[in-house]
Fold each of these.
Amino acid sequence: MLICHTIKEIRDFVRQARSRGLTVGFVPTMGYFHEGHLTLMRRAKEACDVVVVSIFVNPLQFGPREDYDRYPRDLDRDVSLAREVGVDAIFHPSVEEMYPPGFATHVDVEGLTECLCGLSRPGHFRGVATVVTKLFNIVRPDRAFFGQKDAQQALVIRRMVEDLNMDLEIVTVPTVREEDGLAMSSRNVYLSPEERRAATVLPRSLQAARRAYESGERDAGRLVELVRGMIAAEPRAVIDYVEIRSIPDLKPVSRLDGPALLALAVRFGSTRLIDNLVLGSPDGVL
Ligand code: AMP
């Protein structure tokens, strides 16, 4: 497995693969791998001849009071996990490599970034769209793989790819969960044992909403209240948002007639966790 730190190195690697007629799959990440990341890599491996994974904690997508500095990092462990999965190349650039002095261009996806995490994290999706555009231009993959755990991000990227005529396919992969249902996240390591136990209210509340939906409940307000009520009963949980919005436009909905996203963000101490449920889509994926 090749480990590249410069844009030139990874470009040379991909160029060679392409010249041999191989397809390129790409998994952008911020590292500190868990089973969710590894599942994306396995999916990429199944679907493409060559798999490139980027590891880059992107300062542009963190707010000034967010966890950029303390975001967990462990390159050695990530490299050995990626190797086990059969990844062909890791791209691990420095901040200076990605944002040299004078860097001035950003990508703004309007509309669907102006709700949910876009409200509580101003500038976050601008940072995501900008770095993903750069990474797509550097790696030029045939397919890129994103987790449904970050559903709004996946929808923003799809919109951007369509709007800017980027020539690749976006594949969304279902959320990988711990045994007790908590969505895997690099940020779960921040949780104290008590907060970790309390956080299981998130998957439990989403499952309750799914059962209510399957029993015929189509009123968005009542489904949201069901989830809010369960989370509010957990003293360590502080709700940022619980909302139901349409897929793919993320417009508010009052009745669930088509595919919809029940999305939530909840704080446990200083850790903000997100999770979601796709309703009204045959396979439960975005
Ligand atoms: P991150 O390193 O957190 O930026 O995540 C990199 C990619 O992994 C993104 O596409 C995420 O949506 C995806 N991902 C993160 N957690 C999970 C999970 N629990 N299940 C599936 N995909 C995930």
Amino acid sequence: MKTALDRRLLGRALTELANAGVEQLLEQSSLPPPEASARRIGLTGAPGAGKSTLAGRLALHRLRRVGGRVGVLAIDPSSPKTHGAILGDRIRMDELEGAQDLFIRSLASRTASDGLTDNLPELLEVMDRFAFDEVVLETVGVGQAEHAARLHVDTLVLVLPPDGGDAVQAMKAGIMEVADIFAVNKADIPEARRFAADVRRMVTLARHDAEGWRPPMLLTSAHDPDSIAALSDAIDRHFAWLEASGQRDRNRLARRKYRLRRWLERRIDDVVERQPAAFFELPAEQQVAGALQQLVAT
Ligand code: GDP
């Protein structure tokens, strides 16, 4: 049996980490690794695609069907959504009855540029420490940050709006190539079906790896529980494939490399910033040698 979820403690830990600097992150990283890692499901897509609503539906479905402890984290560096208020609104109170093990939280960074997604590995690790079985991570899917976020989830679902508005944008950002599942959302809207056919064609063209995972294209709607169940089943199939193909282990190794690289980069930044102006007048070799020495000494 797990101990009861301490929501206040978890909430505080997440808020602190969301805005933490390097030192705090390193402190957290020196703790022993968590005993187990939650299954991580990423939902990404443009604002308004229906991610929050879908994340709530999916989390409830998985909680009811799969059981265990399920968390939803919404990361949004640019909007003032805070403390799960908005996300929480998407779920009716009566649906939460008996859902003690569902935890929902939106996290916004104080400024748009402090790179909240930089702290993603630690935020997700906190969820592992609080013994979550599954975490649904919602991120806004435009740009580089998403590619970094991609590394930290097991299954990435790209949520597209039914009118195809940002499909071209998504392709430009390369998201089409990294998503594991495509969901044309708000399938209750008539345009959705036609757009879904277009996406299916685009995906077939962009992804023709015969050996690998073939990303399914689904139509989803918050109003259609069967479509949520179908999405959930696709996530399970992808997860089974990750385990069977050894891809999950490769992902784990890639995550560790990413973290080490990020720690080193931050330390390098510290050393560079610390130098007086005269240091940069030295010959290049001396600058490199001097900086390396300081790096090792810190
Ligand atoms: P996000 O910005 O991607 O997180 O999108 P939201 O979850 O906030 O949803 C944006 C809007 O779309 C809200 O007004 C929702 O009520 C609406 N919405 C969400 N899911 C559906 C759906 O399945 N069908 C329809 N018709 N509207 C939806």
